[in-house]
Amino acid sequence: MKKRARRLKTAKNLSGFVRAKMREVETDESIPKARRAKLLLDYAKLLAKLIESAAEEEQLRRAERVLAESRAQAASSRP
Description:
By secondary structure, the protein is mainly α.
């Protein structure tokens, strides 16, 4: 469980880093427009993967919580 929480936190930290890099590239006039567009596209793809990964981790965490609750409820209802 700790590993999963750490991975989720890392994904959130990385997404923040990628967003910062995107802002940096958007405002940097020294980078040619075509190169800037390519970098932004690559960063957007990476950000999408990070967000998808974090969402999957969160969904898995919720499913495990529901399973644990249902097991506890089933155990408490047994005579």
